[in-house]
Amino acid sequence: MPADSSPAEQPLPFTERTEWAERADHAARSVTRNFGRRLLFLPGTHLGAVSIPAKAARSVFGPWHYWWQAHYVDCLVDAGRRELSTQTKFDGDSRPSAGRLASRLVTTIRLRNLFRFENHFYDDMAWLALSTLRLERLAEETRNPGRRRNAYVRRKLTLQFDSASTEDLGGGTFWSTQRDFKNTPATAPVALYFARTDHRERAQSLVNWLNSKLFHAERGVYQDGLRIKNGETVLEEAIYTYNQGPILGALLELGGQENLERAEHLVESVARELTVPGTRVVHGDGTGDGGLFTGILVRYLALAARDHRLQETTRRTARALVHATAEAFWLTRREAPELMRGKGSVPLIFSPNPLRPASGTYPAGAAVELSTQLQAWMTFEAAASM
Fold first, then answer.
1. Per the structure, how many domains does the chain have?
2. What are phi and psi of 175, to 5 degrees?
3. Interval 18-34: pLDDT, tens
C-alpha cells in the first residue's frame, strides 16, 4: 500500500480530527478566495497570486513561482479527498470543488508556462509530477475525465527525470538544466515520484545516492547537494527542513527493513535538529521559497505518523511534531476582515514562523505571500489526516 494512502495506526479522536479538518477548510477558503485568480480573465482558469494585494501587471508579467503552484495543487487534493469522504464541498455548494480547482490550476500552470509543463528546474517539475499523480488518483475515485490530462503531465515530466538522473557524480538528479548541481531538493522528490510510479529500482538507486553522498551521519539529516565548480566537486553543507520531507516519503514508499529503519532515525533526528528548542514545533524558514519549507516537512511527517510499519515511539514523535507545529500556526493566526468579499467566514492570515504572531509578521496592509499561507494550510491538512 502506498505510504500516501496508508491508514492511521492510532487515529485521533473523531472530534479532534474534525476540528483539524475545519481549520484546514478555513485555511483553504482563505487561500482560494484571496489568492486565487483567473489567468488574463480567461474562464475556467485558476492560479495563485504570488502575494496579496496583487498588482495586475506583476501578476501577468512578473514571477509566478511554478513550484508554489505545484504545492497549491497538493493542498487542493488534500481538501478534495476530504470532500470525497464527507460529500461536502470545502467552500459551499455554490463554488467549485477542491478537485475542480486543482484540475483548473494544472491546466493554467501549462498556459502560464507558455503551453509547456517543462521548465529549467527538475525539482519544480518533480513537485508538480507528485501533485498531479495524487490528483490523478483522486480523479479516478471521483470518475473525473481530467485524469487523462494528469497522465499526460506525468508522461512528459517522467522524460525529464529520466534525462536528469545520470551517473555523473555517482548518481542522483540534477537540480537544473545547467547540470552543475545535484542535490537533495531534486533527487528526493524524483525518488519519491519513481517509487510511487513503480520504478522502484530507480527510486532506490537515488535514495542510495542520497544516503552515501549527502547524509550527515552525526546529525542524522540530509545536506543540500554536490556542486561542480571549476571542475571540482563541492559539498553544499546547508541543512533545510523541507529536504527531509520527500526523502522520508521515499523511504516509507520503498519500505524494507533498511529503509524503514532509516525513516525512524530521520524522524527522531528531525525532532532533535530541526525544532525550536524546548518545543516540538518545526522551526520556520522565513518567507519566499522558505515560506513552504516547514509545511512540506510536516506533510511527510504525517505519513510517518500513520505508518504502522514504524515503531510506536517513532509514530508518536511524528504525531507530536505535526500537532505541535499545526497548533502553533493556528494559535498565531490573525483574522483579516480587510480581505472579506461579501458574506462568509472572516479570512485568516498565518505567520511564516509558527511561533511568531501573524499580527506582527503580517500586520494589516502588509503584502502576504502565497507560499506562507500554503504552508499553514498543508500543516493543518497533515494534522487532519492522522
1. 1
2. -80, -40
3. 999 999 999 999 999 99
Place of cell 519513481: 194
What secondary structure does DSSP assign to 196-260, as a single string?
HTT-HHHHHHHHHHHHHHTEETTTTEE--EEEEETTEEEEE----HHHHHHHHHHHHHH-SHHHH
For range 197-204, the mean pLDDT? 98
Q: How far apart are CA 119 and CA 385, in angstroms?
A: 32
Rounded to whole angstroms, how far apart are CA atoms 330 and 119? 35
Confidence (pTM): 0.94
CATH assignment at residue 324: 1.50.10.20
From CA 276, how far away is CA 343, in angstroms rounded?
Answer: 38
The C-alpha angle with vertex 190 and arms to 304 and 175, in degrees rounded to 5, equals 125
Please check whether residue 364 is in contact with residue 342, taking contact to mean a CB–CB distance below 8 angstroms: no
The predicted pLDDT at position 149 comes to 73
Can you tell me the distance from the alpha carbon of 181 to that of 170, in angstroms, rounded to the nearest whole number?
12
Domain that holds residue 62: 3-384
3-state secondary structure 99-156: HHHHHHHHHHHHHHCCCCCCCCEHHHHHHHHHHHHHHHHHHHHHCCCCHHHHHHHHHH
Q: What is the C-alpha R_g of the chain?
A: 20
